[in-house]
Structure formats: structure tokens, C-alpha cells
Amino acid sequence: MGRAVLPFILLAAVAAQLAGGGAAIALGLAFFLAGTAHGAGDEQGGTIRPWNVIGAAGYVVAGLAVAALFVAAPLAGLTLFLLLSAWHFARSTGGTRARQVAFALSAVGGSALWQTGRTEAIFAAVLGMPIPGVWMTGLAILGGAGLLLAAWALGKRWRDPLLWSVLAATALLHPVLAVGFAFLAGHALPMQQAQVRRHGWRAVLAAQGPTTALAVLGAAAIAALVLTGHLALPLAAALAFGMATPHMLSERLER
User: Among the residues of the chain, which ranges form H helices?
Assistant: First the structure.
């Protein structure tokens, strides 16, 4: 991503961290929501356009199917989602293979490595069930592998503000904020900037605007239902994970 943008995102993350857990979680979720635009358009064949009715319906059906998996088997659903996220991040991140995998594994497992107890508590709240210790150990091992690969990549090219900041975020920031930062700074914004270079900002806005607006409204509605006690957090999380998965499976932005 552009170096001019990264410091502002990082500064906002640090400010939210200092403001307390509530602010850190809120900004982390806002980072996720801000990054949804990069997958909100139908990009293929050298063009970008809004999703048509059939494509949008297929996306929603696939998302609901994944959400159903989360409800039926929460830990299995989370495991598959995290592994798919790591694969997706690695494929869409620039640099050497070591840097790509380092970023992906650090984003997914870095908080489990440095903040195991806190990360476990978050997953338990999100899934509505205790998290087995062996599962957390496995996720922390992935984070450790990411750290080792990052050390290798930084040894070859130490001037890498993004990789340094992601490593610091997973160690020092609230896990929700850390992952949201990595997602926005290392994946969503670079993809968005590449789309603007390929198609122009007007075409990107026209293609992504309607779907992004619906996503924001849907997220706001879900958040309101959770905060007022009308929707359980695990069900809300299942919907969020479910609706993010079809984008990763399609991989259209990377073709």
C-alpha cells in the first residue's frame, strides 16, 4: 500500500488501543468494514461492474451456507475460515514468497502467539463455546511460523514498514484491532488501490458503491441487534464469517 496511508492507519490504531478495549474493538471492526469495498464489485475479464442479480443471489446463498456451517460446527467453521484467510492473504500480498506467507500467518495467528489468553477469550465469546487448548496451540504455532518467515524476509529486506507494523500490531494491540489493521493495511487497501489503477476511481466507485452501502447497512443492523440483545453474538459472527467467505473462494480480484 502507499506509504503515505500506512502511518495514519497505524496512528489511529494506537490511539484506539490507548483509549481502551471498547475503542480498540470498535476500530478493529471498523477496519474490517472499511475493507469490504475491495470485494464489493464483480471484477473479471478486464472490467469491473456491479454484481448482477444472479451473481448477488449466488453470493448470498453461498454466504448463508457457510454461516450454517458455523452454527452447526463452530470450531470447524472457524478453522476453515482462518486457513482460507491465510491462503487468500498470501496469494494477494506482494513481495517474495517468504514475505507473502509471513504476512498471512502473522495476520491469522500472530495474536494467538503473543496474546494467547486474550485471543482465546475472544474466540470463545464469538463461538459461544470453550476453545480447546490444543487448537489455540496450533494457531499459535502458525503465528510462530509467520514470525520466523518474517525474520527471514526482513533479513533480506529490512525496510518493510507494513511487515514490521503487522508484527508489532499482533504483539501489542487488542487482537480484534490487530487483525483488522492487518486486513485493511496489508490486503484490502492495496487491492483497492490496484483496482483504481486498472479501472479508474469512477468505475470502481460505480461498481462497488451499491454493494458496499448494503454491507454497511447490514453490518449496522447486525451490530444494533447484538447490542440490544436481540441477536446472539455467535449467530452474528456466523453471518459475518459466512458473508466474507464467498469473496475469498472466488479469487476474482487476483486474476
Answer: 6-19, 21-35, 53-72, 74-92, 97-114, 116-127, 133-156, 161-172, 175-183, 189-199, 201-227, 233-250
